[in-house]
Design a protein that fits this description.
The complex is a heterotrimer of chains A (277), B (246) and C (301).
Chain A: E1 5-16, E2 19-31, E3 35-40, H1 46-53, E4 62-64, E5 67-70, E6 73-74, H2 80-83, E7 91-94, H3 98-101, H4 108-117, H5 124-137, H6 143-147, H7 156-168, E8 174-178, H8 186-203, E9 206-211, H9 214-220, E10 223-228, E11 231-237, H10 247-254, H11 272-275
Parallel strand pairs in A: 3-9, 3-10, 7-8, 8-9
Antiparallel strand pairs in A: 1-2, 1-4, 1-5, 5-6, 10-11
Helix pairs in contact in A: 4-5, 4-7, 5-7, 7-8
Chain B: E1 2-13, E2 16-27, E3 31-35, H1 42-50, E4 56-62, E5 65-66, H2 73-78, E6 79-82, H3 96-106, H4 112-122, H5 139-151, E7 157-161, H6 169-186, E8 189-194, H7 197-203, E9 206-211, E10 214-220, H8 221-226, H9 232-245
Parallel strand pairs in B: 3-8, 3-9, 6-7, 7-8
Antiparallel strand pairs in B: 1-2, 1-4, 4-5, 9-10
Helix pairs in contact in B: 5-6
Chain C: H1 2-8, H2 16-32, H3 35-52, H4 54-57, H5 89-125, H6 127-141, H7 145-156, H8 160-187, H9 190-197, H10 202-238, H11 250-257, H12 266-293
Classes of the chains: A alpha/beta (277), B alpha/beta (246), C mainly alpha (301).
Chain lengths: 277, 246, 301
C-alpha cells in the first residue's frame, strides 16, 4: 500500500537581515494511516512542518523539498488554487486556540455546515443531519442547542470540540493537530484527545499530532519524531520513548518533574553537548 | 510565625462571586501551592492578596497585619508577584535595566547600578542583557527578568502565578531550580498558583485544591507524592496527572 | 561606518543610550526598506529644507509687487509665472512652505499632547472620568472639522494664529479617542499590573508606562492627519479667514488665482500642486511609520 504522505528533505527558510534562517532543515518521513507525533520545544520547527504540508507558510518564508506527496499528489507543484480542494477536504488542521480559529459572528452550526458545503453539494436537510451527528460524535450532549450558539457562548473545551467537528466533517484522510489541547484544562484535554483518537481509528485517518508535551504525545501516538532546531534528532515507537538514545531527548525527559518527585534539583539541558555536531 | 493568613475571603468581580469562604494559613518560609482548573478562582485569590482584585470581604493578613484593599508602598516591599506570561509581563519599550530600576526609583532607593547587577546575577542573568529590550530575550530570560523585578525590593513573600506554564519543559526546569534556590538563599515564602501537580511536588511543601471558588482540601505535598489525597476531586486531578505522565 | 553600525545593532548594549539609539536605528532601517515611506520622507525633508533656506531658494522677494509684470506665464525669469500683482509665484510658494510647516508643527504640538493626556486619563481611570472626558470629545467629534474651525476663527477673528488655534481645537478629539483605545488595551496587561504592585502612583504608571506605548500610534496618526491639517488651513486661507494678505499662504494664493483659472491657470495651480505634494508626502510617511511602529506587527523583525 502506498504511504499517505511522503516527505523528503523538507526545508523551510525565512530571510532575515543577517542572512537566511532555516527553521526546518532537511526533514524526511513517510506516514501511513497511523498516528505520528512530532515533539519539540518552541523554535524546533514542528509547527512549520505541519504548516508546510498544507502549504500555509506565509511569504517571505520559503518551502523547498525533494519530495512532498500526499496520496500520490505532488503538493510542491500545486498552485494556491489547486491546493484549495485539498485543504479541509483531504487534509485538515486543528489549531491551538479555538478562540482565534472560529468566526465570532457565525453560529457553530453554520460554521460546521460551511466546512462541509465548501467541498460538497448536499441538500439542506442532509447537511443539518450531518452537522448534528458530527457534534454528537465529538460528545456534545445536546447538539441542536449548541449548533445555534455563537463561539463566545461556549467554553474552551467545547470550542475545541467544535473545531474538531468542523475539521472532521468533510472526512479528511489526514488530520494535522497542532497543539490541539494546550489551551485546555487537563481533564478536558483527555476528553478531547480521546475524541480525536476514536475518530481517527474509526475512519482510518492518518494523524500528525504536533505538541511540546512528550508524555502526551507518547500516550496518543504510534510513532514519534523528536525535533530540535529544525532537525529530527530521534525517531522511535511511542512505547520506547523512555529508552531514547539522543542526549536531547533524554535531557528533555529528565527535565520534566514527576508527581512523586524526590530530586532536589532538576537536570538542565546542556545545549552545547550536541549543538556542535 | 504566619506569613499570610486568609480568613473567610469572598472575592467579587462586579456581580460575579468568584470565591467563597477561603481560609488559609501559610507559615513564614513555607512554599504553598494553590491548585485547580481554570475558573476555580485560584488566580483570583492571588490577585486579591496582591491588591489587583480589590473587591473582597473577609480578612487578608500579612505578617499579622490586616491588608488594605489598595496597593501601598509598605505592602509592596513585603510582597511581590511573578506573572504567568513572560511575553506579557514586561513593558515592550523598556530595557531590562529600566524595568528593574523602576522599583528603586519608586521607593527612592539609591545605589541603583550595583543593586540591579546584584539581582541580575542572583537570577542567573548575564550582565550583557542589562540594556536589552524584551524582544531581544528568550522566554526563559524574560521570566528571569520578571523574577528579578519581583526581588528588587527584597520582599518576604512571593506570589507566583503559573510561573512556568508558558515555558518549554527544559526552560521550566531551569526556572524551577532557580525559584527553589532563591527561596533557600533569601528565606522567601512562596504562594504558587498552578494546575501542574508535578511542579507542586518539586517546589512546594503544602497544597490546597480549589474547585469552583472553594477550597476542597489542604494537604501536605508528601501526601500528594504518596497518592494519598482524600477529597474525590483532588484524587481525580491527581489520577489524570499520573495517567498523563505514563 | 561599519563600526558605528555594529555599535548600533549590538545585541548587548552597554548603556541605555546605546539601547535607545539602536532601537531608533532598527526602526529607521525598517522604514528605509519601504519605498513609499522613503518618498514621503524625502518630500517632507525637502519641505523642511525649503522652509529653512527660503531666502536662498527664492529668486524674488515674495511680497514685492511689479505691476508691469502681472500674470506672466512660467518662464526662465519667473519659473512659475507671476500673479495678478506681478509677484513671483515660485518665491511665494517657497516662502509658503514656512507658513505651512509652522501650521502643521504648531497644531501637532498643541493638539497631540492634549489629546494624548485626555485620552490616557479617560482610558486609565474609566468610570465617570471617562464619561465626562469622552462626552466632551464626542461633542467636538460630532461637528464637521472645517465648520467648527470656521466658527472658532469667526469668533476669534481672522488671522494665521487664530487659524492654528482653531485647527488645534478641532483635531485633539481624534487623538484622544486613539489614546483612550490604546490605553484600555494596555491598562490590564501584566506589565502595568507589575508596576502598580511595585507601589507606583497612578501618575507614574500613566506618564512613565502607559503614555510611551500610545506615542507611536499617536505619531502615526498625527503624520497621517497632517494632510488634513494642511487642507483645512488652506481651506481657511481660501475663504479669507486664515492667513491674511500679503502672506504667501498656499490656500490664500489659490483663492486669489481662482478668478484667472481659465486664462492664467498657473496662478492657482502652482500652490495647489505644492499642497498636493506635501499632503501626499505626509500620507506616505505616515503609512510607512504605521507599518514600522505598529506594536502588533513591528519590532518583532
Amino acid at each position: 500500500m502506498n504511504p499517505l504522505l511522503e516527505i523528503e528533505n523538507l526545508r523551510v527558510t525565512f530571510p532575515t537581515p543577517r542572512g537566511d534562517l532555516e527553521v526546518v532543515r532537511g526533514l524526511s518521513f513517510t506516514l501511513g494511516r497511523e498516528r505520528l507525533g512530532i515533539v519539540g520545544e518552541s523554535g524546533s520547527g514542528k509547527s512549520m512542518t505541519g504548516r508546510s504540508i498544507l502549504k500555509l507558510v506565509r511569504a517571505p518564508g520559503r518551502v523547498t523539498a525533494d519530495k512532498l506527496t500526499f496520496d500520490g499528489i505532488d503538493l510542491l507543484t500545486r498552485s494556491e488554487r489547486q491546493m484549495r480542494p485539498i485543504r479541509g477536504a483531504r487534509i485538515s488542521m486543528v489549531m491551538q486556540d479555538p478562540k482565534f480559529s472560529l468566526n465570532p459572528v457565525m453560529t457553530i452550526g453554520e460554521q460546521i455546515a460551511e466546512a462541509l458545503l465548501t467541498h460538497q453539494r448536499l441538500p439542506r436537510r442532509e447537511v443539518n443531519n450531518r452537522v448534528l451527528t458530527m457534534l454528537e460524535s465529538v460528545r456534545i450532549a445536546d447538539p441542536e442547542r449548541v449548533a445555534k450558539l455563537y463561539p463566545h457562548e461556549v467554553s474552551g473545551g467545547m470550542g475545541q470540540r467544535v473545531m474538531i467537528a468542523m475539521m472532521l466533517i468533510p472526512e479528511p484522510d489526514l488530520l494535522i493537530a497542532d497543539e490541539p489541547t494546550s489551551a485546555l484544562d487537563v481533564s478536558v484535554q483527555a476528553q478531547v484527545l480521546d475524541i480525536i483518537d476514536e475518530l481517527v481509528k474509526r475512519k482510518g485517518m492518518g494523524l500528525i499530532f504536533i505538541s511540546h508535551d512528550l508524555n502526551l504525545v507518547s500516550s496518543y501516538c504510534d510513532r514519534i519524531l523528536v525535533m530540535n532546531t529544525g532537525e529530527v534528532v530521534e525517531e522511535c515507537k511511542a512505547g520506547e520513548l523512555m529508552n531514547a538514545k539522543h542526549p536531547y531527548t533524554r535531557g528533555l525527559i529528565a527535565s520534566i518533574p514527576r508527581l512523586d518527585e524526590t530530586r532536589t534539583e532538576l537536570p538542565v539541558l546542556d545545549r552545547s553537548a550536541w549543538a556542535k555536531k | 510565625m504566619t506569613a499570610l493568613s486568609l480568613k473567610n475571603l469572598d472575592i467579587f468581580y462586579g456581580e460575579a462571586h468568584i470565591t467563597h469562604d477561603v481560609n488559609l494559613e501559610i507559615a513564614d518560609g513555607e512554599s504553598f501551592a494553590l491548585v485547580g482548573e481554570s475558573g476555580s478562582g485560584k488566580s483570583t485569590v492571588l490577585k486579591a492578596i496582591a491588591g489587583l482584585a480589590p473587591e473582597w470581604t473577609g480578612e487578608i493578613n500579612v505578617f499579622g497585619k490586616p491588608r488594605s484593599h489598595g496597593i501601598d508602598r509598605a505592602f509592596s516591599r513585603q510582597c511581590q508577584m511573578v506573572f504567568q506570561d513572560p511575553y506579557g509581563s514586561l513593558h515592550p519599550r523598556k530595557t531590562v535595566d529600566a524595568t528593574l530600576g523602576e522599583a528603586l526609583t519608586i521607593h527612592g532607593i539609591g545605589d541603583r547600578s550595583a543593586r540591579i547587577e546584584e539581582v541580575m546575577s542572583s537570577v542567573g542573568l548575564d550582565r550583557k542583557f542589562r540594556f536589552r529590550f524584551p524582544h531581544q530575550l528568550s522566554g526563559g530570560q524574560r521570566q528571569r527578568v520578571a523574577i528579578a523585578r519581583a526581588l528588587m525590593l527584597k520582599p518576604k513573600v512571593l506570589l507566583l502565578d503559573e510561573p512556568t506554564s508558558a515555558l518549554d519543559v527544559s526552560v521550566q526546569a531551569e526556572i524551577l531550580n532557580l525559584l527553589k534556590r532563591l527561596r533557600q538563599e533569601q528565606n522567601l515564602t512562596f504562594l504558587m498558583v498552578t494546575h501542574n501537580l508535578p511542579v507542586v511536588s518539586f517546589l512546594c511543601d503544602r497544597l490546597a485544591v480549589m474547585r469552583q471558588g472553594r477550597i476542597v482540601e489542604v494537604a501536605d505535598v508528601a501526601d500528594l507524592k504518596r497518592g494519598d489525597l482524600k477529597d474525590p476531586y483532588s484524587r481525580e486531578l491527581m489520577h489524570i496527572s499520573a495517567a498523563h505522565a505514563n | 561606518m561599519t563600526t558605528l553600525r555594529d555599535w548600533l545593532i549590538d545585541d548587548s548594549p552597554a548603556s541605555p543610550m546605546q539601547a535607545r539609539l539602536g532601537r531608533f536605528y532598527r526602526i529607521f532601517g525598517a522604514l528605509m526598506h519601504n519605498p513609499l515611506a522613503v518618498v514621503g520622507a524625502i518630500i517632507i525633508l525637502v519641505l523642511v529644507l525649503t522652509a529653512l533656506f527660503a531666502p536662498w531658494i527664492a529668486t524674488h522677494d515674495p511680497l514685492r509687487q511689479a505691476l508691469g509684470e502681472r500674470l506672466l506665464p512660467p518662464s526662465a525669469a519667473h519659473w512659475m509665472g507671476t500673479d495678478e500683482l506681478g509677484r513671483d509665484i515660485w518665491s511665494r510658494v517657497v516662502y509658503g512652505a514656512r507658513i505651512t510647516l509652522a501650521i502643521v508643527t504648531l497644531v501637532a504640538v498643541l493638539a497631540a499632547p492634549a489629546g494624548l493626556v485626555i485620552g490616557v486619563a479617560a482610558g486609565y481611570f474609566g468610570g465617570w472620568v471617562d464619561r465626562i472626558l469622552m462626552g466632551i470629545t464626542d461633542i467636538f467629534l460630532s461637528l464637521p472639522k472645517l465648520i467648527l474651525a470656521l466658527a472658532f476663527v469667526a469668533a476669534l477673528g481672522p488671522g494665521i494664529e487664530n487659524a492654528i488655534i482653531a485647527i488645534a481645537i478641532t483635531s485633539w478629539p481624534g487623538y484622544a479617542r486613539v489614546a483612550r483605545a490604546e490605553t484600555m488595551t494596555f491598562k490590564n496587561s501584566e506589565f502595568i499590573s507589575a508596576v502598580r504592585l511595585l507601589g507606583a502612583s497612578s501618575l507614574r504608571v500613566n506618564l512613565g508606562h502607559v503614555l510611551p506605548l500610545c506615542t507611536s500610534s499617536m505619531i502615526v496618526r498625527v503624520t497621517l492627519d497632517m494632510a488634513g491639517i494642511i487642507l483645512t488651513a488652506a481651506g481657511l486661507g481660501f475663504i479669507g479667514l486664515g492667513a491674511q494678505p500679503p502672506l504667501p499662504e498656499w490656500g490664500a494664493m489659490i483663492s486669489r488665482g481662482r478668478s484667472f483659472i481659465l486664462d492664467q491657470w498657473w496662478v492657482a495651480t502652482m500652490p495647489g500642486f505644492a499642497i498636493i505634494l506635501v499632503s501626499l508626502g505626509f500620507c506616505f510617511l505616515g503609512d510607512g511609520l504605521r507599518d514600522v511602529l505598529d506594536p502588533k506587527s513591528g519590532e518583532q523583525r
